[in-house]
Design brief:
little secondary structure, about 0% helix, extended, phosphatidylinositol-3-phosphate binding, lipid transport, endoplasmic reticulum, autophagy, ATG2
Length: about 70
């Protein structure tokens, strides 16, 4: 399997920030909101849900060397 390729679309350089994300002190419930969030006004219970995910092939961005065709 090939390694992933990252394409940077910005004009400036890419830089990394060490320790940007903090490591959690203990395992927590991922479905609960963080303690910093306000208390909810209402609560909804989801009993049943269907999800349809359509994926299409193709490219979202043109190569920079291509010119835009005018109609």
């Amino acid at each position: 399997m090939d390694e992933p390729i990252v394409t940077w679309l910005g004009n400036g350089p890419t830089f990394m920030v060490d320790n940007h994300f903090t490591v959690p002190a203990a395992r927590s419930d991922v479905l609960k909101a963080p303690k910093s969030f306000p208390l909810p006004v209402l609560r909804y219970t989801l009993c049943e849900m269907s999800l349809t995910w359509n994926m299409f092939g193709g490219t979202d961005f043109r190569q920079t060397s291509e010119t835009t065709s005018k109609k």
